[in-house]
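Researcher: Good morning. I'm working through a list of sequences from a screen, and I'd like to move beyond sequence-only analysis. For each chain I'm collecting a predicted structure so we can compare shapes side by side. This is the next one on the list. No need for commentary yet; just the structure.
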Amino acid sequence: MRSTTRFFAPVGLLTLLLGALLLPRPAPAFYNVKAGDPVPADALPTLTGDEARLWVEGVDASVFVFFKPDQPNSVTALEAVAKLPEAMSGKKLHIVAVVSTTYEEEQIETALAKAGFEGPVMFDLDDEFYGKLGAVLTPAIGITSSEGKLVHYQAFHQLNLGRILQAHLQHHFGELDDEGLKRVLEPPKATQGGDGAIARRRVNMGRMLLMAKKLEKALKMADEAIEKDPEFVGGHALRAAVLAAGENCKGARASLKKAVALDPEHELVLQAQEACPEKAGGKKEAKAEPGAKAEPRAKPEEKPEAKAEEKPEAKAEEKAEEKPAE
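Model: Good morning. Structure tokens for this chain:
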């Protein structure tokens, strides 16, 4: 009987090679500029008629983003970059956007307004600068040091893009160690004994109940989600949003602390912060959680009305009327 080993060995090897080729690969960085390499400092014309560069001296870091105004992902990336200066308060950042000259100014301005981006916008003539860096994807985001060296290239992420960029900046500044950065980039799944899938379903149900203003039931969904997976931001963010909707800002802020630590850009976190800002002009009265019985308020003591003193003029008039006519 002939051995089939010689036949199956090449086939098996070919299968492995094909499988490796078909596996998803991480998005490539700038092909011509690697981490640690200097980033070109060419001055390019801007939307306002001035000039700008990808990085400048005298700042803690620079962040630039290549975008297309007709691409929804680009608008999301612009929005994430626009929020970095506020998120990294205490650090001086230079943020700039780069767009091809193939787009009309009206298109560009519409995308900028939608994203809330107010930094300089550089025109890349015929995508020359885009090719100079070796970028292959749009949007593409780069972070440089104060000396103009590439610190990090960031491909687009649909979820938590702002938090990811913030984490890389914190890591660059020494505010976040390698383990802390890893926790942001690879958030833990459901904790032991928990069930992440159930937690997410509870949050989705709670969102709908919140929209329907059924706060008591929505709060129950939030508590069940937290019980199933304490490290899932959705449960804490939902709880904060429900309490904020019920004007219980004290309780909302307590839940916000945990939610912000997990994901400060979460939609429900922002919703709760808007309803219960930290620096509110006037303090809202803390209300009980939905479903809790409010204690009856004591009625204020009724004060007897003071009798109006009779004016002397009125008495004189009465006496004059009583006097008989002569």
